[in-house]
Design a protein that fits this description.
The protein is mainly beta. The chain is built from one helix and twelve strands, in the order αββββββββββββ. A twelve-stranded antiparallel beta barrel has the order 1-2-3-4-5-6-7-8-9-10-11-12.
Length: 248
C-alpha cells in the first residue's frame, strides 16, 4: 500500500525541490549535515515547457548550545518559450540556548527575488524567542515563536521601495509517523508594527515519507497571503508540491 501511495504521488504531482519545514531541536542531530533536492521538468510536443529548481540546506549543531542553518534555492521556468518563473532565495538562521530548557533565542537574515511577484530584491533581518509549548501526541512536538524583523523591498513595478518593521509570530507542530517519517504544520503571521491591517501570513502542511536509506519524499501544501501586494499581483498564492529530498 505504501508503494502504491508513493507511485501515485510521483506520477500525479509536478516535482519541485524543497527543504523540510520541521523545526530543529538543539542536540537532536549533532554535527554537520545537509539536505539537497533537484527538480527537472521537460515537455515537448503540444506543450513546450521547461522547469528547473535546485534547493540545498546545510546545518551545524554543536549538541549543547546552538544550531545554525543556511538554505539556498533557485527556480526557473518557461512555457511555450515564454519565461513564467524566475526566483532566488537565501535564508540564514541561528538558534541559541539561553539557559532555559524550553526557550531558545533566534536570529535570522534573508534575501530573495521573484520576478513574477515583481520583487526585484527583498532583504530581511530579525530575531526573537522560540518556545517549546506542548505535546498533544506521544511523538509530537509543538513550538511558538515571537519576535520582529526589518524588511527592505525593492520592486520592478512603479510601487515605491518599502522599509518596514514587522512583528513576527509563528506556530509549528510535528507528529512522528514512525522512525523516519513525519507530518508537520506551520503558520506565520507578520503585520507591520505601525499598521496591523497590512500583514503577510503563510500556512504550510508537509508529509515526509522515508523511501530508501537517506532518500525521502516530501509532499507539501502552502497558502500564502500578502494583504498589500504590488500593483498587478494577486494577494494570495496556493502551491501543491512534491519532491525527492536526499539527506547527507
Amino acid at each position: 500500500m505504501k508503494k502504491l501511495i508513493l507511485l501515485l504521488l510521483i506520477f500525479t504531482q509536478q516535482l519541485f525541490a524543497l527543504v523540510s519545514i520541521v523545526p530543529v531541536e538543539i542536540g537532536e542531530n549533532p554535527g554537520f549535515h545537509g539536505k539537497t533536492a533537484l527538480s527537472l521538468e521537460t515537455k515537448r510536443g503540444n506543450t513546450h515547457k521547461d522547469n528547473y529548481k535546485l534547493a540545498i540546506r546545510f546545518d551545524y549543531d554543536d549538541k549543547r548550545n546552538y544550531h545554525t542553518w543556511i538554505e539556498m534555492s533557485g527556480e526557473y521556468g518557461e512555457s511555450n518559450y515564454v519565461k513564467d518563473t524566475s526566483k532566488l532565495y537565501l535564508h540564514l538562521r541561528h538558534i541559541q540556548a539561553i539557559g532555559y530548557k524550553n526557550v531558545h533565542a533566534e536570529g535570522f537574515t534573508q534575501t530573495q527575488n521573484d520576478e513574477f511577484k515583481l520583487i526585484k530584491r527583498r532583504y530581511v533581518l530579525g530575531g526573537g524567542l522560540r518556545f517549546k509549548i506542548f505535546e498533544i501526541f506521544d511523538e509530537g512536538k509543538g513550538y511558538f515563536g515571537a519576535g520582529g524583523f526589518y524588511e527592505n523591498i525593492q520592486y520592478t513595478s512603479i510601487d515605491p521601495r518599502e522599509h518596514n518593521f514587522r512583528l513576527n509570530s509563528y506556530f509549528a507542530y510535528t507528529i512522528k509517523l514512525g522512525d523516519d517519517s513525519d507530518l508537520s504544520y506551520t503558520a506565520f503571521y507578520q503585520p507591520k508594527i505601525n499598521e496591523f491591517s497590512d500583514y503577510v501570513s503563510a500556512q504550510k502542511l508537509e508529509l515526509k515519507l522515508h523511501v530508501y536509506k537517506r532518500l525521502f519524499l516530501n509532499f507539501q501544501l502552502a497558502y500564502d497571503v500578502d494583504h498589500n501586494p504590488p500593483i498587478g499581483v494577486e494577494k494570495y498564492d496556493f502551491t501543491q508540491t512534491t519532491s525527492f529530498v536526499f539527506d547527507f
